[in-house]
Amino acid sequence: MNTQLLLIQVFNGLVNGAFYALLSLGLAVIFGMLRIVNFMHGALYMLGAFTAFALGQAFGLGFWPSLIIAPLVVALIGMALERGLLSRLYGLEPSYNLLLTFGLTLLTQDLVKQVMLSQYAVSSAPYTPPPALSGVVNLGFVVFPKYRLFVIGLSLLICLVTWFVIEKTRVGAIIRASTENPMVTRAFGIDVSKWVTGVFGVGVGLAGLAGVLAAPIYSVEPYMGAELIITTFAVVVIGGMGSILGSVVTGFAVGVLAAIGAALYPPIANTLVFILMALVLLVRPSGLFGLPEGAR
Amino acid sequence: MTVIPRTAARTDRERLTRAAWLVGLGVLLLVLPRLIYPVLALDILAWGLFAVAFDLLFGFSGLLSFGHAAFWGSSAYVTAYLLGQGQSVPVAMLGGTLAALALAVPIAFLSVRSAGIYFSMITLAFAQMLSFLALQWTDVTGGENGLQGFERPSFLGLDFSDSVTRYYFCLALFAVGFYVAYRTVRSPFGQSLQAVRDNEPRAQSIGLNPVRFKFTAFLISAGLAGLAGSMYAFGHGVVSLEVVNWRTSGEVVMMTLLGGTTTLFGPVVGAGLVLLLRDVLTTANLPVGIVTGLVFVATVLFFRRGVVGTLQQWRRR
């Protein structure tokens, strides 16, 4: 394989990695605070893309305003669901919340499918990137679509900001403390449950943002999040659900590795992530960055 | 995952209840092809056994597998493939079941060491991997087209082109599968399994090896899911990518939960209810996904004991 093709694959891998990173970052933040795995994450990613599409249809809003508004809409929906439904199951096994969010996924996907069919008479819709980001960039050694570079850059920036907020600010300190030991955190006079809803909103907001970013690349389609979220779960297992930075690094790394593997041996493209997961489970059952059970 | 506390000692009344359930369900299954069209009845049998297999792992071992479609689906594919190659029905079904069992060994090995939600994600991921394989390995699976039109040669004078004959043949297999699950749960092994589920450290301290118990339970469950999958392929005559889809893994969870976990009878009832509901919705041209999604959400939120679990609780009062 020549170097140029390899570089293109690395860039494509970074684009996939950007979505893995944004989604697994959101999953990690939510898991850290609520101890639940949000299956709905993929459906909310799709809802972000759909909201951007619907805003464009209804109000003629373009990519840039949608990039702000759609994640906020998704965050609000997520927070409402957390308050109204998920919070009812906090006393029970975490599995029940996985099941609840699974049911909500089925519901959301088919609702969006119905709306798309009845309102717009389509089952999937293309979404155009803003003119400023269309076309290609000549990086000297390789030519690459401008929009995809933007996706890589923006998601890196967002991951860094999230990491900074969680590791370096007072808000982050509260979140980390609640994650580590909610009882002690309460004893210090911090109302943990008040933070839970907000953290959930931020987590799913990131999924919504990833959805808007994905819309111009893959088109808007009710089931666009379903397979992505399962692959993201594999990424999460590879990284281990212990650290924020770990989930971001793993997301990008797995994206790139899978893309290079796919270039070397195309039939393996879809399954390589899962093979990686099996290998990691053999060597380090708690994931690359995860703490062994009982250590937290 | 305890829904109903269980003790080793059983009263006569409990024994009576169980016998009543067994007889009731048995009679219902015997007359089922007269009540609804036989292919739907066959579906209920196959999905019912699939859900029983799932309950063995979820209800009795506390392991929420989100990838049971891997075993159901791989068996369905292998069964259909072997039938397509001209093999007899018992050989094809045995081949499918063994394939599911063989697939379960590495997956169980890699997943049972992880607990809780991790286990769910790992099983889901492996099932997804298999679903990609089924999509790509078109020589064997037929890819997007799936496998259909395979022969179901007569066996011991049984004409399998008749769906009612197929039904009663599968009912016999269902009875065997159900009995295996039932014996497993009632055996000392099953009691130990529930001890591990309820309190792992305590089970360990009395000398039980949790990983080994979970591993064995996983294999039994996957084998039964495989038997169910081969029944589905044989009964239905069509195998498509749907059988290894993640939604299939979710569907069996829903059936089990709706019918009642740790009841063994419940999952069969749940499978029947879900399939009948789906049949009614499809006939009435209503959005199936939205309604089943609503039922799923409502069950998890308000009806976690399920139909059979709730009935049992009423009787106890």
Can you give keywords for this protein?
heterodimer; A: 296 residues; mainly alpha; two-stranded antiparallel ribbon; 11 helices; 72% helix; B: 317 residues; disordered N terminus
Provide a short characterization of the protein structure:
By secondary structure, chain A is an all-alpha fold. Chain A contains eleven helices and two strands; from the N terminus they run ααααββααααααα.
Strand order of the largest sheet of chain A: 1-2
CATH class of chain B: Mainly Alpha
- What amount of the residues of chain A lies in strands? under 5%
Mean pLDDT of chain A: 87
Helical segment count of chain A: 11
Map the helices and strands:
The complex is a heterodimer of chains A (296) and B (317).
Chain A: H1 3-34, H2 41-59, H3 63-84, H4 94-120, E1 136-138, E2 143-145, H5 146-168, H6 170-180, H7 182-187, H8 192-214, H9 224-239, H10 244-264, H11 272-283
Antiparallel strand pairs in A: 1-2
Helix pairs in contact in A: 1-5, 1-8, 1-9, 1-10, 2-3, 2-4, 2-8, 2-9, 3-8, 5-6, 9-10, 9-11
Chain B: H1 12-35, H2 38-61, H3 69-84, H4 89-111, H5 116-136, H6 138-141, E1 147-148, H7 163-186, H8 188-198, H9 200-205, H10 210-236, E2 238-239, H11 246-259, H12 265-283, H13 288-302, H14 306-316
Antiparallel strand pairs in B: 1-2
Helix pairs in contact in B: 1-2, 2-7, 2-10, 2-11, 2-12, 3-4, 3-5, 3-10, 4-5, 4-10, 7-8, 7-10, 8-10, 11-12, 11-14, 12-14
